[in-house]
Queue: 3 jobs
Job 1
Amino acid sequence: MDLHSGMRLVDLDVRSIRSFLALCDTRHFARAAKEVGLSAPAFTRQIQRVEEAAGGPLFARGSRDVELLPRGALILPPLKRALVALVEAEGLLSQRSRAASDEVRLGCVVSVGAFFVPHVLDALEPHAAGEDDEAPRVSLCEAISQALQVLLLNGDIDLALHVEPFEAPDVVSRRLWTEPFYLVGPPSLVEHASLVGRPWALPPSQRAEQWLRAQDLSPRAVTLTDNLATIRQLIETQGHLSVLPAIIARQPDWRIALHRDLRHELVRNVYLSHRGRAYLSPAAERVCAAVVNAAARSERDPMAPIGDTDSGRALPRGLAPTPTHSAGPAL
């Protein structure tokens, strides 16, 4: 590492500072890289830039974790203050440039976008009397939760509806609801039919895949897709099985059978996040309020069992019980 490159701390960009602070917080390269949305090589280069600017090593690398050296501890407080000041300045400029805009960039995971966002649009409250009553223009961006965090931190979206908690310190999050997953299949699948050797269609979720592997069902094929229309088609017409969150499994127009309530094994939390009120235009604040209102006005408790699909129902043959988990998978 060239410690005489001429770079100074004042030459660092926000990404380098954010990477340094993330590593100080997590003391782990892989976790810190994930937090700031960078690949491992790109994250390492950012840390090297900070060390070059500081004139020497800032971390002691261990076999698993890293330790902050005295030189790193010395620059940690001022770099924190610098990032806070930059974020505040960016927020003020963003608020001014977007204050007159009615467009709100809303990022969400696919299932929430398909089955919850329409209720958000219905819940948009009109302006106060005497003000322009035109509704905000909502631009929808669908992605997995990890990608939504990066988009939010980079300012590419104003609000995020996601199912995994964001770990970035400069993000404001609110949990909207918790919902269970259901084991579902085609209506033709009788309650006690064997599930061994059947085809499965799953959302791209490590937790869902881990759950399926734990059942030892020797699936004939496993299709991973975030396309809800494809999952529905495979279940209804091709006889696939799946595990789906309640917001999907309870859709009345889906011709599927709910075979088991998995609330003791798979649940997920749905969150609303943004970067703080300084970043929100009046239109974005209206959409934010509509999201909260739509979640509060839900007529059904997402954790309530449906009919006889509660945990006391007899399991289909070949389905083994699995351990209880608290966090839910992403879809």
Job 2
Amino acid sequence: MSKPCQIQKIYATAFYIVFQLRTPGKTVYLYMGRGKGYEGLFIGECAPPSFLRKQDQLRNYLRKHLSSCFLHEVLIDKKDRAIILRFQKMGKINNFSYFWKGRDSYFFHFFHEISKNNTRIYTSWNGYIEKLSETLDLFDIYDELGRIDIEKRNDIKTIGVEQLLHDEEEISNSRSNKTKANKKLEKKIHLIKKDISRIEKLKAIEAKVEDSLFEKEIQDKDVFHFEGFKVKFFHGMSFYQKRNRVYEKIKGFKKALKIQEERLKETQKEIEGKKDVQKQSTLLPIMPIWKSEAKPNKTQKSNESFNIVTFKDMKICYGQNAKENDSIRIKWAKKEDYWFHLESDKSPHIFVKGDSEVILSEELFVFVANIMKKESGLKTSEVNLMYTKVKNLKGVKKSPGKVLYKKEKYRKVVL
């Protein structure tokens, strides 16, 4: 690359990442394979069609860090299948690298943190790593992934970007044409064809009716059977009346045949239209091996303020305020757990959870009553408990801590 070019836009398809580069007097597109057999770099003069474009984590990452930067050069590993894009951002040279290993792919990002005046390296497979020696080749970062000195091929073929996009579109169409809607239409076509085939077999009835032996065949019969076709005759009908009745049925089947043939044409036209017009590719983007950063578990975080005590093989949890009571009911308690409250008085919500089934023993009632007395500030030795299963509770909107309950039971505990 003789002169730096600006990375104006970054697109993504299921198989490629596409950098729109502006060179002096010309715009070109650098296609980078995402993995699973789609690998390497390709130069083209067209952006991917909107039909194939995707929004995914890799595209968003590259847009965040490389958009509007200036690409200085593309380095190709002399050993294995890896490349480095060297680009300038805020006056500093940064590096984004992609490595294809088997069917998998990986990347690393060597960048400058301007605010902290230092450099960092982020790897997709291992997160942030320690600063490297200044003499180390950046490609050596991939050694731990099994980077080897592969034999270079001299019979490399060049493929046009248009061909790459055409192939991806063909794959997308072949997979997306088997949608639920299309399957339903295909089933409809199968049933229509089955009806048409059955009706066409009945054409032979007409020849049979005109046969001289037909009169003897139906003379003493109340029902006429032929190839699954059945006509009932009324008592006392003459041969001519019976024959006319059969003709009426044949005439009806001829009309049905025309109707079914029209339905078949319309359904076939409908399914062809769905194949021709497709709004968006259904292919899933190929992703590099990417270690997800651990995010704090919101439920666990909220549990830190909950009061949880153990009684035998059960856990007993209660909150200090209305908000905590709701949080415990929604996030901590399960449907088969038990909920306790003071009868006709304000109190904390106490929830009892067991490893399996909660057994409501006298000891458990005394244990819960002691907690209820302490947390409610009761002065009496009698604690009137009300309880039910959590599945019988329903929160009240805009009223924190308030619940509607059913199938409740009552228990007086004397401490």
Job 3
Amino acid sequence: MSFLYPLIFVSVLILILGVISLLILRFLTPELWRLRWSKVTIYLGVILGLVSAAVWAIGFYVNALWLFRISALTLASSILFLLAVIISLPLSALFKLIINLIFKIKDLRFSTGEKRKTNNERRRIIRAASLFFPSLALSTAAGGMIRSYRGAELPEIRMKFPHLPEHLENLKIMQFSDIHLGYFVDLDDLSSTVEDAMKLKPDLVLVTGDVADRLEMLPDALRIIAEMNPLLGVYACMGNHEYYRGEKEVRQAFEKAPIEMMINSSKSLKMQNGTFTLAGVDDPIFMRNVSPEFYTDALEETMSEAPADEFKILMCHRPDGFDFSAEMGIELTLSGHTHGGQIGFNGRSIFENWVYYPYLWGIYRKSNGSNLYTTAGLGHWLPFRLGCPPEVPLIILERN
């Protein structure tokens, strides 16, 4: 029942946003609170969100593409509407307070007739502000929804290591993750992204899980990615959706594709002047309550045959495996899974330090020199991206 956790999370989020919206309406904008339509609009937003969340989960469970897309669109719209209320009403109330204060100071110098004119001017300004801030919030939300349907970015992520072997200087790794083919990304989108990615000439291509939610698209997806034909090959690790959608079918698709699936395994890859270790660790499948022993045991198995003196790169679908990989001295871990929360600022998720999940988006470093990059991924579950665009990062290794 993999849809239950996101369903519960989204439903609770909508209820919290609804309560906050009503409290703001009641205490910061009492003049709007007295208008029945304002409260009814928020109630309808909450109801639409809860119904959409339930239909969204059903669409995922029965793998009904049209149902999932429609409900995801209405679900995103309701959440964004409530967020727009929460952001815009306090700004409108603050602006009203400032304008009233300014005009009160001005009124001290005016006669009664002049005060009447300034009161009319004040009402016009406040009325304009009451429309401006909600319109700005809603237009920003609409922009985020439009951005989710545009192509992926291909950012260059330069990662520095104090003891990087000379033969790995400027090694270029292209990372595909969380494509989620079938809902909002199709094979044409993937093909277009791969075509752009090939121009960057990566040395190695890694796929860190959650490739396809419609398994009939998986063989073609693997073929398209494999066409990049990088010098050091294309490799993949398991994500939770590979298990959700059918482990047996996924394994069979990879066995027929020129992409090696690495599950708790490692291998030395040879370059002209040296070697390095590439590894892939399994996914714990479950959304919550993952035992620490899982990663400890899985990584011990994964790295059991890896040469101790080689630079190590690990594919780990979930970034919470980074704490364990760093303890083992693995220099670079590449992850996805989080989608960066789909809302970010300055290269970080806005949910950073606000949710229990660690390492949401970007570069993370440990004191021992171990590095992690968590990608925001190519696909998404809700059609909304703001400050956290779909991406296929090009990781470039550099000596610190």
